[in-house]
């Protein structure tokens, strides 16, 4: 059959069909990409809010901006081998580490004496190209349990342009509307600033899954317990905005610093999706081995600079849990990483190296 | 023009075409969706994105071999030259992007210092050593070439429907059906 010229009306109809198919597909794409959905909490918006609070400091992390690279190793004693088949836990296995000690907040020039919290991020290098990355905070619980609440907390803590400090009324309203912050607030009241990065305990806070050789899943949290005893920040240290790095270098000049990697195993029914809730103190704890840090380096040219300590970069034998913060962290850290590597690339290629504000 | 003189695409070519059409559209939607949410969808979409993208890389190689081995049916002789040229150009651009997108994805992750993990325990080798400059260039290219690929697919789809609904010249049928019965 030879096709005849279709009648004009029919042709218009057929062109309309084609147009509609294309339009529907394009609209669906735009919707999925968030372009038609201004209310969606995207990684972009999360990072914009961090930038609203601290300003844009090109090339720096959008949170935990002030920090130092450290290098060392983890030696497994085999105690966690029965819980996770990850090679990092094999008896005697030594994994090279690139770490980062930091303080929270988006200002890379912040005063070390301000926040009571320190953070420790680690990248364990495993055989066969696998890695385990973790970013831990020195606190027992996280203030909020969902990305949405974290975003609202960031908005509530935006500094007032006049005082340069968060508006207490907004903060108060946020905490009043978020009773899950109570355990965190109770801790903050009693928290003492440490004199050092190396004498505090760091915590994964989010729960993860360990998968053993038989395929059985165990819910865990992990942390680092220091060998150096806790001492509080001294009055002399309060005068030095960079006392944590000065202390770190002094201690490393004397010798390596060590922590025990402690894995806490959940009992059935313990919350795995809520980082505001600590597990009861009697839960089984396993000392999995020793983290040793030998030297520190400035983050501007150190090996931790271009690492994104995405908590979901995990080896076989470790997996994420149903904690909703994990996915949000992974998404937001990536956006922060994209921005800071782009800025690094731009400043590396620009001939005039003027500092930008 | 008589559509019967146009030979259809070979069966492997047709199967690969439709399988990859679904996979690539899925990849594009998964890609823009996963970077636009902090919800738990983000993680599982990323976990789907990487192995599916590498599968596309493997399939496009097979597909190019099939194309080279079996050839393609001729376009209708009465097709205006500009449409013929656009068709050929756009097809080669589609192949180039199908090949480039997964390679960029893989290289980009290597340049960012990330392990390229497809499944638990399956990690691809690094293609390059870590470099923030390279990472950032490739990350930029991954987005903009993906958007170009989507635009090109819309154009391709519109052209296919134009052949199928308006010209009705057998070009669409050459990819949807086997050889017509005489
Ligand atoms: C939804 C909640 C959270 C968001 C949006 C968020 C956001 C961020 C961002 C954007 C960075 C900078 C990443 C980079 O550029 O590499 C960062 C760093 C960090 N975050 Fe979070 N965070 C969240 C929750 C948490 C939690 C629950 C912890 C608890 C352990 C944590 C610990 C850290 C640490 C230790 C770092 C520093 C990593 C480093 O030294 O590179 N964060 N966070
Ligand atoms: C046909 C192949 C592919 C297509 C069509 C595709 C498409 C996309 C799209 C549309 C995005 C979102 C870009 C944006 O909106 O900024 C994206 C992001 C991404 N793609 Fe692909 N992709 C492909 C292959 C791959 C492969 C093979 C890998 C890695 C093995 C990969 C890794 C990634 C990653 C990691 C991101 C997000 C990075 C971030 O968090 O910033 N892609 N991709």
Automatic annotation (TrEMBL), chain A:
Gene3D superfamilies reported for this sequence: 1.20.1280.120, Catalase core domain (2.40.180.10)
UniProt cross-references to SMART domains, sorted A to Z: Catalase (SM01060)
Composition bias type Low complexity, residue spans: 347-357
Listed transmembrane segments: 12-36
Alphabetical list of InterPro entries matching this protein: Catalase, Catalase_core, Catalase_sf, Catalase_SrpA-type_pred
Annotated stretches, region: Disordered: 330-357
Enzyme Commission code(s) on record: 1.11.1.-
Co-factor requirement: heme
UniProt keywords, alphabetically: Heme, Iron, Membrane, Metal-binding, Oxidoreductase, Peroxidase, Transmembrane, Transmembrane helix
Domain called Catalase core: residue spans: 26-356
Function: Has an organic peroxide-dependent peroxidase activity.
Family per similarity comment: Belongs to the catalase family.
Name used for this protein in its record: Catalase-related peroxidase
Native source species: Salinicola acroporae
From TrEMBL, chain B:
Subcellular location: Cell membrane
Record-linked InterPro entries: Cyt_b561_bac/Ni-Hgenase (IPR011577), Cytochrome_b561_oxidase (IPR052168), Di-haem_cyt_TM (IPR016174)
Regions that span the bilayer: 15-39, 51-70, 144-165
Residues covered by the Cytochrome b561 bacterial/Ni-hydrogenase domain: 9-178
Membrane topology: Multi-pass membrane protein
Membership in a protein family: Belongs to the cytochrome b561 family.
Protein name per Swiss-Prot or TrEMBL: Cytochrome B
Organism in which the protein naturally occurs: Salinicola acroporae
């Amino acid at each position: 059959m030879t096709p005849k010229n279709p009648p004009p009306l029919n042709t218009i109809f057929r062109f309309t069909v084609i147009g509609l198919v294309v339009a529907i597909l394009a609209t669906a794409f735009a919707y999925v990409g968030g372009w038609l959905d201004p209310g969606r909490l995207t990684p972009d918006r999360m990072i914009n809010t961090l930038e609203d609070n601290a300003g844009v400091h090109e090339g720096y992390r959008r949170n935990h901006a002030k920090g130092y690279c450290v290098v060392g190793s983890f030696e497994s004693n085999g105690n966690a081998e029965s819980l996770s088949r990850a090679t990092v836990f094999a008896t005697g296995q030594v994994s090279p580490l690139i770490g980062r000690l930091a303080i929270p907040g988006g200002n890379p020039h912040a005063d070390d004496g301000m926040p009571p919290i320190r953070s420790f991020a680690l990248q364990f290098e495993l055989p066969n190209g696998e890695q385990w990355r973790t970013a831990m905070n020195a606190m027992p619980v996280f203030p909020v349990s969902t990305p949405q609440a974290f975003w609202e907390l960031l908005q509530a803590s935006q500094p007032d342009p006049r005082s340069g400090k968060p508006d207490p009324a907004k903060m108060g309203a946020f905490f009043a509307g978020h009773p899950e912050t109570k355990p965190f607030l109770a801790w903050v009241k009693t928290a003492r600033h440490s004199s050092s990065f190396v004498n505090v305990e760091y915590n994964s806070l989010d729960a993860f899954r360990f998968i053993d050789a038989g395929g059985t899943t165990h819910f865990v949290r992990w942390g680092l317990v220091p060998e150096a005893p806790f001492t509080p920040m001294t009055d002399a240290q309060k005068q030095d905005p960079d006392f944590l790095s000065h202390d770190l270098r002094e201690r490393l000049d004397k010798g390596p610093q060590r922590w025990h990697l402690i894995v806490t195993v959940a009992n059935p029914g313990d919350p795995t999706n809520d980082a505001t809730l600590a597990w009861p103190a009697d839960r089984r704890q396993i000392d999995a081995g020793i983290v040793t840090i030998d030297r520190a380096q400035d983050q501007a040219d150190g090996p931790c600079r271009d690492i994104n300590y995405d908590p979901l970069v995990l080896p076989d034998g470790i997996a994420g849990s149903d904690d909703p913060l994990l996915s949000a962290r992974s998404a937001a850290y990536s956006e922060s990483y994209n921005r800071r590597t782009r800025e690094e690339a731009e400043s590396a290629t620009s001939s005039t190296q003027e500092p930008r504000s | 023009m008589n559509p019967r003189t146009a030979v259809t695409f070979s069966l492997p070519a047709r199967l690969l075409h439709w399988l990859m059409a679904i996979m690539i559209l899925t990849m594009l939607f998964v890609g823009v969706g996963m970077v636009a949410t902090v919800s738990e969808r983000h993680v599982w979409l990323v976990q789907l994105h990487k192995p599916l993208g590498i599968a596309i890389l493997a399939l496009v190689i097979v597909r190019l071999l099939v194309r080279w081995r079996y050839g393609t049916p001729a376009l209708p002789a009465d097709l205006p030259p500009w449409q013929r040229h656009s068709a050929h150009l756009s097809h080669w651009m589609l192949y180039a992007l199908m090949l480039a997108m997964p390679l960029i994805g893989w290289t980009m992750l290597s340049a960012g210092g990330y392990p390229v993990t497809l499944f638990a325990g399956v990690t691809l080798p690094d293609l390059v050593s870590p470099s923030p400059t390279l990472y950032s260039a490739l990350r930029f290219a991954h987005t903009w070439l993906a958007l170009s690929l989507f635009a090109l697919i819309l154009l391709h789809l519109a052209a296919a429907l134009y052949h199928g609904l308006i010209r009705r010249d057998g070009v669409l049928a050459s990819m949807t059906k086997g050889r017509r019965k005489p």
